[in-house]
Structure formats: structure tokens, C-alpha cells
Design brief:
Elements lengths: L11 E5 L9 E6 L13 H13 L6 E6 L2 E5 L2
Antiparallel strand pairs: 1-4, 2-3
Length: 78
């Protein structure tokens, strides 16, 4: 007897999770010069304030990265 495989192709959908019970979208900023990262927050104003304080304390630090953690969900299309 030889082993057999059965393949079934399915269509899946992927989208941001906007359900009422989904995890929140979180924001942070990271200094590209020294790698220091702001606290994570649901409100983008907090990481933005961190950037302004950080660049005020470190005048040559002008480059930053935005870090967004966004929940996603998948489901099988029928």
C-alpha cells in the first residue's frame, strides 16, 4: 500500500480585527539613533510626547520609527 494525500484548497480572508472584544491598537516610537523606545500606549499622543522629550534631551537624535501593534483576524470563506 502506498500513502496518499488529499489536498483541499480553501479561501481565507485577513483583515484588521475591529470586533468589540479585540485587542487595542498600540503605538510606540523608537529612536533610530540609540534604539531607545517609548512606552506603548493606545493614545499616539503619549509616544509623540516621548519623542519630543527625547530629542530635547538628545539634540542630535532626529530620526524615529513608529511601531504600531494592530490586531488582525482570519476566517475561512464559505
Amino acid at each position: 500500500m502506498t500513502p496518499r494525500s488529499v489536498l483541499r484548497y480553501e479561501n481565507w480572508t485577513l483583515q484588521p480585527d475591529r470586533e468589540p472584544d479585540s485587542e487595542p491598537v498600540l503605538y510606540a516610537m523608537q529612536c533610530a539613533v540609540d534604539g531607545e523606545t517609548s512606552p506603548t500606549s493606545e493614545d499616539f499622543a503619549e509616544p509623540q510626547d516621548w519623542v519630543l522629550r527625547h530629542c530635547g534631551q538628545n539634540p542630535p537624535h532626529h530620526t524615529y520609527r513608529e511601531i504600531i501593534t494592530r490586531p488582525w483576524r482570519t476566517w475561512r470563506q464559505t
